[in-house]
Amino acid sequence: MRLLVYLEHHEGELEKGSLGVLSKATALGAAVGVVLGPGAIELAVRAGSYGATKAYACEDELLAAPLPQPRVDALATLVEQTGADAVLFAASILASDVAAGLAARLDAGLNWDLTDLVLVDGELVGKRPALGDTVLVDVGWKGSPGIGLVRSGAFDPVESGGSAEFESFDFTTEDFSALATLVEQTQEESSGPSIEEADVIVAGGRGLGSPEAFSLLEELAAALGGAVAATRAVVDAGWYPYSTQVGQTGKNVAPKLYIACGISGAIQHKVGMQGSGTIVAINKDPNAPIFDFCDIGVVGDLHQIVPKLTELVRSNRA
Amino acid sequence: MAPRLAGPPLESSAMKIAVCVKQVPDATVHKRIDPETMRLDRSGEAALNPTDLNAVEEALRIKEAQGGEVVLVSFGPGKAADSLRKALAMGADRAVLVSDEAASGSDLLGTSRALAAALERESPDLVLFGQASSDGDGAVLWAAVADRLRRPLISQVASLTVDSSSVTGKRQTEHGYDVISAPLPAVVAVSDAINEPRYPSLKGIMGAKTKPQETLSLADLGLATDSVGNAGSKTSVLQLGPPPSRGDTIKFEDDGSAAQKILDHILERRLL
Q1: Is A189 within the bounds of a domain?
Q2: A224 — contact with chain B (CB < 8 Å)?
Q3: Domain harbouring A105, CATH code
């Protein structure tokens, strides 16, 4: 099994989600990484410490902006030249567009939202929770390469040491691929990890009562080294940026610890977070649906409990 | 680049916009996969995919500002025509539905192939998609369609400006904001944060009944039946199982010690 893993990077670091997929691929077969854009060579070498035997790198300027279509050109060229049984991506806004464009280009099957990958009789099989995670579907691919998009947080990176042999490559561009251009980019100032990367998420819903109450969650998240997320209702109300929205029209996350504060647990939210390791729910309403799918449920006032918990975490860590 | 629509010249900035929309099981329906066919059971009440309405709304706003035409393009069973009527009632001008017995069981490849063929026939200046379907939830279709149409792509757009020759979209990413520009014709996928879809007026609802609705077969689009549907699919559903179960819930009321109890559980599970 020859698995090509697309390694996304940001500000000189390989993304944790991509490294998780690489570590998983290493456990399944010969994992080869590919890094695209300025700085790719240095990052490709680093992929070795997560199990890549080899990593391809292309530093072409066309790959500098976070746009999918030139990446499709590059990966299509690489797959055609080197072959691969599967091309795997950690889901992100960019990676999803790259994976789907590549599927169309190579006439290759795409399965998305995978939470696990296994080998069955030597064939790659993906596990995909579907229909609001009410059913777990085993999905396969006909022909190769198969293309897979893995849900954020599904696999942890495993650092094993070692460095990858790297090889630079060039690619041919399609005439339409460079038409879209990045005209402006604003980096968000953030003091902690993004919700896709965080091991701990503290999330808030309508039960916070006001946008100001998010500061309580921010303090708890900071104490835990985590990120703050929000439900659709509060994002729609303008209480919190919609980049933090978890759920059906937001992001699917699977941190190790998810603390839901004032969140009723509507199905639209549930689908985005129920893959989390441990779910703690704090809600005033004892009948809130979230108590049906959390691990630890507290009926109480989050405005009392959250600040206390923050203090306790701080003193425990001190 | 796809050929532009031939015909009488529209006003210079007038825009032909195609909006790709999908019929999905209604939100009130308990969605299930038929264990026989391993496909989503689409027999119950159906509706237009909610976030597609944002794409329809955006198309209508562009048309209202600049003139032009809004065409709905859909791929699905024949009964999808009913759901398209809602978007016609909102103000779209006409609808094209690709529907064919042989198309059932299509995965991303077949779906993008059928839509791209219908879009090529329309040759719009701008193709719009909504955020994600409530049944498949892949949020990937536009990128496959853009590749087949050989057009530039901007996805997850939360605000959009269009002039006679280009489109510029602002989007929020994991790391901040990107502003991306592309010449027309282009493919744009909008996020559900872009606007608030209008409700159809009574006049709109009455008028929708007489708006042109066309149904095309795969043959009408020159597509081989084995390139779409189950035969053209490169993915397979092997098995259905129950979702991984969570353990028992520990539930208690706060008596002042809840924060300590939560911390104890977090420590016990080595999560700190």
Answers
A1: no
A2: yes
A3: 3.40.50.620
Q: What is the pLDDT of residues B237-248, one digit of tens each?
A: 999 988 777 778
How far are the Cα atoms of A240, B25, B141, B214 from residue B83, in angstroms, in the given order? 33, 10, 20, 14
Domain residues for the domain of A304 are: 200-317
Percent of chain B with pLDDT over 70: 96
CA B193, distance to chain mean position in Å, is 15
Q: d(Cα B249, Cα A306) in Å, to the nearest integer?
A: 20
Give the count of domains, chain A: 2
Token pair recorded at residue B158: 């939360």
Residue A252 is given by DSSP the state: -
Residues B67-85: what's their mean pLDDT?
95
CA distance, residue A316 to nearest chain B CA (Å): 9
B-chain CB neighbours of A291 within 8 Å are: 249, 251
- Residues 6 or more apart in contact with residue A216 via CB below 8 angstroms: A208, A261, A302, A303, A306, A307, A310
Which of B 232-271 lie inside 8 A of A, CB atoms? 233-244, 246-247, 249-254, 258-263, 265-267, 269, 271
What is the DSSP code string of B173-208?
-SSEEEEEEEESSEEEEE-TTS--PPPPPHHHHHHH
- For chain B, the C-alpha Rg in angstroms (whole number) is 22
| Distance of alpha carbon B6 from the chain centroid | 27
Nearest-by-Cβ selection for B272 from A149, A249, A316: A316
Higher pLDDT, B70 or A187: B70
Q: Structural domains in chain B? A: 15-232 (3.40.50.620)
Query: Which among B162, B105, B127, B103 is positioned nearest to B19, based on CA atoms?
Result: B127
DSSP B28: T
- Is A157 inside a domain boundary? yes
CA distance A24 to A5: 10
ipTM: 0.91
Q: What is the mean pLDDT of chain B?
A: 91
- The 3-state DSSP composition of chain A as helix, strand, coil percent (nearest 5) reads 35, 30, 35
Q: b/e map of A249-284 (b: 16 or more CB within 10 Å)?
A: bbbbbbbbbbbbbbbbbbebbbbbbbbbebbbbbbe
On the question of pLDDT at A189 being above 70, the answer is: no
Minimum Cα–Cα distance from A10: chain B residue: B175
Cβ(A194)–Cβ(A227) below 8 Å = yes
Do residue A261 and residue A114 come from a single domain? no
**Contact at 8 Å (CB) between B258 and A298?**
yes
Residue A236: pLDDT band (50, 70, 90) is confident
Q: What is the DSSP letter of B141?
A: H
Give the count of beta carbons closer than 10 Å to the beta carbon of residue B121. 14
Type of residue found at A138: D
Give the pLDDT confidence of A48-94 residue by residue, as tens digits: 999 998 999 999 999 999 999 999 999 999 999 999 999 999 999 99
pLDDT at residue number A190: 64
pLDDT digits (tens, 9 = 90+) for B6-48: 455 555 678 999 999 999 988 888 888 888 888 888 888 889 9
Residue A257: which of B1, B138, B266 has the nearest Cβ?
A: B266
